UniProtKB/TrEMBL annotation:
Gene behind the chain: sufS_1
Species: Marinomonas spartinae
Keyword terms: Pyridoxal phosphate, Transferase
Highest taxon of source: Bacteria
Pfam family, one: Aminotran_5
Enzyme class: transferase
Protein name from the UniProt record: Cysteine desulfurase
């Protein structure tokens, strides 16, 4: 495994050459990552050259449609799924809402949906609201001390009436990486569909969705170096069961089924830049060729190795500081590079402001994980300080965070 070439990586992101951001260490990646140059270039090109209705007769219109098609084809291949399994909507929250409305039409009164209290509200609230349709909502609860889910609790929640299980790949606060495949396998054995929120995981390496075994997998492209879109993979048999949620005359176009408002043409076309970037990253570091899924796995391993070392350093510091309480597991092998802390003697907002004043881009609050914080006896009105990074973060930036914490505490 080669070492990540950070000079090459950071050259692919315009933000690192932006004077207004000079000297600022970006630790709010869980809220949205920087966009890579390829995405910015494609978006700029689309608005300048092909900003018209795609797929019509004019050659420019045909070019616009071809750019959108390329995104679906290449991004799907990178995720190791079929092109018609990929749907791109305005956001993951909106995509989940559409899904909930679709499931409401095919489920019967008394059918059960299992949600967790570990998730972002986008993957909890839409399912809970289906109680108004006569559905029964069960909650898979976290351990209040650790914020983790226990798989041993799942069998007792499953019954003959259970139809759907919604859970997160990785909490956006606790950061523990859940055993998605094992959970999905257990649900499938019980005849239960699975909806997995991968928003807080995908920015650390786009997953092999087929291997995970989820019936539906969602993530946000604006947290994976792309534009503000939500990506959603739906297994063909589940999509057929749910049916077309868009205009009836578009039923022949699968990628329009779950995007009732229609796709954002420019952003869909620009999203192929995410794959451009990852391919460039692969080819810069590896001489081996291969399919897009094979390249994706090598890139995934490359990013993980880099992030793991930085994460271990930050976790070690936080865990030993008497004025910081770490939220989530200490073991860097079990979590993503999102570190939430609760300070002693000051509010998270006060600590975050002190970090911001020292050039650390970070935030404080509940981050839409209100139910999780309440379960852990943490006041969601103040929440936690969240320090989240991805592969373009440098070791000296982690040291800058540590030094800033020292001064602030």
């Amino acid at each position: 495994m080669p070492s990540l070439d950070l000079e090459f990586v950071r050259a692919q992101f315009p933000a690192f050459q932006e004077p207004s951001l000079a000297g600022q260490a970006f630790f709010d990646n869980a809220g949205g990552s920087y966009a890579c140059q390829a995405v910015v270039d494609h978006l700029n090109q689309y608005y300048r050259q092909t900003k018209l209705q795609p797929y019509h007769l004019h050659p420019v219109s045909q070019k616009a449609g071809a750019q959108m098609d390329e995104t679906y084809q290449r991004l799907a291949a990178f995720l190791n799924v079929a092109t018609d399994e990929l749907h791109l909507g305005p956001s993951t929250s909106q995509n989940t809402y559409v899904l909930a409305q679709a499931f409401a039409k095919i489920l019967d009164e008394g059918d059960e949906i299992i949600v967790t209290n570990q998730d972002h509200e986008a993957n909890i609230g839409v399912w809970r609201r289906l109680e108004a349709h006569g559905l029964v909502i069960k909650e898979w609860q976290v351990d209040p001390d650790t914020g983790l889910l226990d798989m041993a609790d799942l069998p007792d929640l499953l019954s003959e009436r259970t139809k759907l299980l919604a859970f997160t790949h990785c909490s956006n606060v606790v950061a523990h990486i859940n055993p998605v495949k094992a959970i999905c396998d257990q649900a499938r054995e019980a005849g239960v569909w699975t909806v997995v929120d991968g928003v807080s995981y995908a920015g650390h390496g786009l997953p092999d969705v087929s291997t995970l075994g989820a019936d539906i997998y969602l993530f946000s492209l604006y947290k994976t170096f792309g534009p503000h879109l939500g990506a959603m993979v739906i297994r063909p048999e589940v999509a057929e069961k749910l049916g077309n949620q868009g205009h009836y005359f578009n039923s022949a176009f699968k990628n329009k089924w779950f995007v009732p408002a229609g796709p954002d043409h420019a952003q869909v076309a620009a999203s192929r830049g995410v794959v451009d970037y990852f391919e460039a990253l692969h080819d810069h570091h590896f001489s081996t060729t291969g399919t897009l899924p094979e390249k994706a796995q090598r890139v995934r391993d490359l990013l993980h190795a880099h992030e793991h070392a930085l994460l271990a350093r930050l976790l070690s510091y936080v865990s030993q500081h008497p004025k910081l309480a770490l939220v989530g597991p200490l073991d860097p092998d079990k979590r993503a590079a999102t570190v939430s802390v609760i300070p002693v003697g000051q509010t998270p907002q006060a600590l975050a402001q002190k970090l911001v004043d020292q050039g650390i881009i970070c935030g404080a609050g509940h981050f839409y994980a209100v139910r999780l914080l309440e379960a852990m006896k943490v006041d969601p009105n103040t929440g936690v300080v969240r320090l989240s990074f991805v592969h373009y973060t440098q070791a000296d930036e982690v040291e800058k965070v540590i030094q800033a914490l020292e001064q602030a505490l």
